[in-house]
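Lecture notes, part 5. Sequence design as translation. It can be helpful to think of inverse folding as translation between two languages: the language of shapes and the language of residues. The source text, in structure tokens, appears below.
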């Protein structure tokens, strides 16, 4: 048994990152033959991508996927720790799985992802969720076949969570959810330690992948007909800072651009590390999409300081204006937290003012959620839930107004759209514009997977309606 440990998780040792390669021993290749797995994923794109690796590993063991958790042999939850409600969802699902297991004693239940890295969660699993067979963390996904095999052959809980990130493991198999869009990890972990955030504990020290491995992966995607890659990291702008040679996000974007993949996106960008060189590269290369997700978190410099964000409101606005002015037709989205400890009505109004100024194309808004082990959890002045909820509603009203206003500006324009499929609701084609806006339009299914010009006919708050432009 190897348990998570926050003291170790907090350390940043700056050890040399060693690369290793995934290997599956012959004797494990049949352990899932004839069996079905159910995998539920919570959280961000990084978790979604980890799940793509998990699926491929399970299928290489002979398992087949099912979306029916009531009829499976293996149920695995890939969890998220970012806010309390992500926790509650996963624990709720474990409760449902308990009932399923009462009628199917052979059901194997596993938990992985960010919650597995939390000391408190793992001790709950040991003490109160004894029917969970195995737990592994974010640093040892590649060990899944071994841990699962042990769990199948043992009556004890198998718990293997490394608190210290290990090597970067290349060549983990992947079963991508889309044939046209792909996630590509570029940097693991985060060293920013924003005071509210659990991620530096659950994902460990910042480690960049070798740029050659990234370019090699994108080249293979181009050969397979992929149209779009999203370069992933908690803070992609810090890419390269831990390499022992001069190479940063601007260079990586440039090198990935040269693979001729039609579309490149990246997320998330921390405002602190956004360089002029990066702005130049985004502006220069047509296949780097004019879309930047730039979380601001708060419009009050006092709160930003307490959050440990390392920029003031003025710094943010300066960067925002620079991006807006230098990248043609750029769209900018953001994340905002309301109700951070000690946030006053005046602080909150500064956030509203900033949103009135920035007129974001999209914004993900959250009520602050206290995370055990983070610095902000110890702050005095926690904000009552009803005050935070009221602020969230008022904030949403402001940001939504601008989503619609920005979308309306596109009416009558022709925009490039990567067609992704047919929507369940409208039975029309849907896809995303270069600026990452969802658009629905009528057309032949043969367009799926292609980038086509679409004329925007009418704008709504969350999406556009269009028609194919000949
Ligand atoms: N790495 C990204 C954010 C990843 S988490 C960045 O730095 O921008 C995604 C978003 O969740 C954050 O931007 C933040 O707005 C929100 N978030 C993170 N921790 C939170 C918490 N404790 N309570 C509420 N929202 C939180
Ligand atoms: Fe969390 Fe801050 Fe790191 Fe983003 S940059 S993952 S908010 S600590
Ligand atoms: Fe959640 Fe972990 Fe992502 S905490 S947001 S799944 S990095």
């Amino acid at each position: 048994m190897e348990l998570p440990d926050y003291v170790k998780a907090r350390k940043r040792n700056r050890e040399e990152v060693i690369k290793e390669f995934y290997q599956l021993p012959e004797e494990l290749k049949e352990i899932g033959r004839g069996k079905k797995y159910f995998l539920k994923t919570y959280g961000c794109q990084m978790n979604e991508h980890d799940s793509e690796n998990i699926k491929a590993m399970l299928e290489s063991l002979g398992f087949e996927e099912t979306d029916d958790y009531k009829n499976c042999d293996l149920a695995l939850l890939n969890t998220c720790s970012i806010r309390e409600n992500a926790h509650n969802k996963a624990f709720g699902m474990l409760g449902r799985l308990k009932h399923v297991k009462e009628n199917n004693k052979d059901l194997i239940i596993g938990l992985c992802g960010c919650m597995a890295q939390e000391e408190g969660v793992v001790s709950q699993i040991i003490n109160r969720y004894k029917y969970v067979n195995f737990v592994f963390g974010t640093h040892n996904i590649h060990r899944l076949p071994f841990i699962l095999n042990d769990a199948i052959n043992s009556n004890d809980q198998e718990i293997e969570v490394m608190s210290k990130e290990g090597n970067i493991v290349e060549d983990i198999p992947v079963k991508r959810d889309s044939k046209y869009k792909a996630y590509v990890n570029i940097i693991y972990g985060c060293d920013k330690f924003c005071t509210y955030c659990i991620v530096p504990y659950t994902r460990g020290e910042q480690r960049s992948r070798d740029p050659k491995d990234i370019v090699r992966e994108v080249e293979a995607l181009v050969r397979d007909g992929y149209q779009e890659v999203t370069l992933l990291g908690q803070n992609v702008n810090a890419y390269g800072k831990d390499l022992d040679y001069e190479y940063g996000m601007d260079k990586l974007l440039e090198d990935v651009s040269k693979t001729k993949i039609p579309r490149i996106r990246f997320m998330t960008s921390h405002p602190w590390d956004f360089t002029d060189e990066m702005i130049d590269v985004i502006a220069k290369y047509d296949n780097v999409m004019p879309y930047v997700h730039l979380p601001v978190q708060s419009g009050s410099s006092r709160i930003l300081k307490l959050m440990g964000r390392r920029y003031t409101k003025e710094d943010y606005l300066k960067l925002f204006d620079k991006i807006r002015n230098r990248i043609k037709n750029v769209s900018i989205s953001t994340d905002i937290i309301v109700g951070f400890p000690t946030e006053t009505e005046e602080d909150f109004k500064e956030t509203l003012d900033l949103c009135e100024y920035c007129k974001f194309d999209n914004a993900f808004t959250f009520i602050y959620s206290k995370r055990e082990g983070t610095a902000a959890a110890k702050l005095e002045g926690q904000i009552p839930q009803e005050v935070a909820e009221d602020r969230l509603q008022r904030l949403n009203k402001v940001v939504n107004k601008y989503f619609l206003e920005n979308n309306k500006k596109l009416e009558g324009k022709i925009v490039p759209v990567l067609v992704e499929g047919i929507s369940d609701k409208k039975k029309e084609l849907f896809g995303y514009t270069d600026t990452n806006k969802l658009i629905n339009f009528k057309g032949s299914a043969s367009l799926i997977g292609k980038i086509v010009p679409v004329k925007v006919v009418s704008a709504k708050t969350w999406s556009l309606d269009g028609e194919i432009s000949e």
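The translated text above is only one of many valid answers, since several sequences can fold into similar shapes. The chain has three domains: 6-160, 172-408, 414-468.
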